[in-house]
Specification:
This protein starts with 17 loop residues before the first helix and ends with a helix. By secondary structure, it is α+β, with helices and mostly antiparallel strands. The protein is built from twelve helices and 13 strands. A six-stranded antiparallel beta sheet has the order 8-11-5-7-6-12. Strands 2-1-13 form a three-stranded antiparallel beta sheet, with no helix packed on it. Strands 3-4 form a two-stranded antiparallel ribbon.
Length: 554
């Protein structure tokens, strides 16, 4: 029962009292709030720049580049805007973003010819067992390959003779009998979509956005928690979450082969309320919805790993034999190659999509286009566990059970969790801790989504994120009418050395001083940018007005 306030007393605390002082904002919080408002990084990284000619040093702050709001909100929002720009520029393109490679020059062809002759001489020396000549030819091959790389050719000419390729295990590529057949066409080297013509002669090139989900593991409530946790298949859900990226790769491969052209996509992977991953994608061009559903239903991925049951007792490391042994019998555990040799014709796990496949068409310039881009990127600044608020005990228990299953599920060939199932992982060593793999998929914040959450095809926009950052800076410089590019002289720029500055260095200013300095600089930049925008708008308005008067007079 709440006590009634005494009559005649004001609701506000007494001026000068401790309660009144607690109502005043903290100066440090105001600095951080204003820094976030103006887009100043809250965790700048101090780099020491040393002029090698004069010996003068200075501390330069660079943004931390975090992509999550819980670490640095301004940098995370900046990364989100950059991703939205990347999706926007590549979605409704009418031309191919990536031009064809240039033809090889005569220098390129001469180096390749020399490399071919060296390969021929090496093979001849090996046949005749002239091993001293083999070493000399190998040295010449390394020099030629360095010259080929210096000339600007991408990739390698041939595998190195110093490191022979490991033999790969061959698995049958025959499709499963329980999966529908897929049509296969020759993939054309085009990435743009089809052009449609309206009855009035207007041409337009629409695109699509797609949502794919995984299958059900048991009935769930509206809050995502299972109706019956005892029958919910947490083990299947954990395996699906870890192998979901491979299923997506297989889907795009099947889709391109089915439609016959190089489909381009950009999207994000995020968890549903039931904590299972699903993905939203922007697709350039249009594909019939029936084709998307058929391809999704026929797509699967087989995990050819050793079959495992329930985790057992942790083994012990034998330092003398340098192997892991069973804790009870002391017998060495099967190695990774031995465990693979024992695999029968059935994979350890098969992952498939669920029946919920949603696809919608979007036209360039529509209000739905920008809204869809925001919908695709709405959770990329949050960790997977923070995408949906956990408010009930049922949701907390569901998260705890799912995470505990992820902790003991193997994530790769080198995962330490294999030791819990009586198998030594690939390249096992004594520093491994059974059941404590350091992979990101086992962390509570990732929920099994340990890889990249932003998936962009190679020919989406024809640019990298660094290119998009450069374009943004170039637009600002053009609007301000300035050029901050360092002028170079004939002898080249002055040599400088960069190193990470330590927080306890004598010349390292306090963090709040650095934030205040960056805040002042950002306020000046924003004021100058707003003034430039106003001038550009006034110039455009005056130009439009003069053009209208000229048409009236004419």
């Amino acid at each position: 029962m709440t006590a009634e306030p005494l009559p005649g007393l004001a609701d506000q605390p007494r001026p000068g009292s401790r309660a009144a002082r607690r109502l005043l904002p903290l100066a440090a919080d105001v600095v951080k709030d204003m820094a976030s408002e103006y887009g100043v990084c809250l965790r700048p990284v101090g780099l020491r720049r040393t002029d090698m000619t004069t010996g003068q040093t200075e501390i330069i702050d660079v943004p931390c580049g975090a992509t999550r709001e819980d670490k640095c909100q301004p940098c995370a929002q900046r990364a989100r805007r950059l991703r939205k720009t990347q999706i926007r520029e590549g979605w409704h393109r009418a031309d191919e973003p990536a031009p064809a490679p240039r033809s090889a020059t005569e220098e390129h062809r001469a180096l390749i010819s020399l490399r071919a002759h060296l390969e021929y001489y090496r093979d001849q020396a090996v046949r005749e067992s002239k091993w001293d000549q083999v070493g000399e030819v190998d040295d010449a091959i390394r020099e030629v390959e360095e010259a080929i790389a210096a000339e600007g050719l991408r990739g390698t000419v041939a595998p190195s003779h110093d490191k022979p390729a490991e033999p790969k295990r061959q698995r049958s590529t025959k499709r499963r009998q329980d999966a529908p057949a897929l049509p296969r066409q020759k993939v054309q080297p085009r990435t743009v979509g089809r052009v449609y013509t309206a009855p009035d002669g207007t041409e337009y090139r629409p695109s699509m956005w797609l949502t794919v989900t995984l299958d059900s593991y048991g009935p769930v409530r509206p809050d995502g928690s299972p109706v019956d946790p005892s029958t919910y298949d947490y083990r299947h859900a954990a395996w699906d979450a870890i192998t979901f990226p491979r299923l997506l790769d297989r889907f795009w491969q099947n889709l391109r082969r089915c439609v016959g052209w190089n489909v381009q996509y950009a999207g994000c992977v995020e968890p549903q309320r039931r904590l299972a991953p699903h993905a939203h994608f922007a697709i350039r061009g249009t594909i019939p919805r029936t084709v998307l559903r058929e391809v999704a239903a026929a797509t699967y991925h087989q995990v050819w790993w050793p079959k495992v049951g329930e985790p057992g007792r942790a083994p012990l490391w034998d330092s003398d034999a340098e192997t892991w042994c069973d804790a009870e019998t002391g017998a060495p555990l099967p190695t990774w190659d031995e465990a693979l040799d024992a695999i029968d014709d059935e994979p350890a796990h098969v992952i498939r999509f669920g029946s919920q496949i949603r696809a919608e068409g979007v036209n360039a310039g529509d209000k739905d286009a920008e809204r869809t881009i925001g919908y695709i990127t709405k959770y990329i600044t949050k960790s997977s566990a923070d995408c949906h608020a956990i408010t009930t005990d049922r949701q907390r228990d569901h998260l705890e059970r799912f995470w505990r299953q992820l902790r003991v599920t193997p994530c790769s060939e080198r995962c330490a969790n294999w030791l819990l199932y009586g198998i030594q992982p690939k390249k096992a060593h004594g520093k491994m801790r059974p059941g404590n793999c350091k992979g990101r998929v086992h962390q509570r914040s990732t929920l099994g989504i340990g890889g990249r959450r932003i998936l962009v095809s190679r020919d989406w926009s024809g640019k990298t994120l660094a290119d998009h950052r450069y374009d943004a800076r170039a637009w600002v410089r053009a609007l301000l009418g300035s050029d901050d590019q360092a002028a170079t002289v004939d002898e080249g720029p002055a040599p400088v050395a960069w190193e990470l500055a330590r927080p306890n260095d004598p010349d390292m200013p306090p963090m709040r001083h650095r934030l205040l300095r960056a805040l002042a600089q950002r306020i000046q930049w924003r004021n100058a940018l707003n003034a430039a925008k106003d001038r550009a708008a006034q110039y455009e308005a005056s130009t439009t007005h003069e053009a209208g008067e000229d048409r009236v007079k004419g």
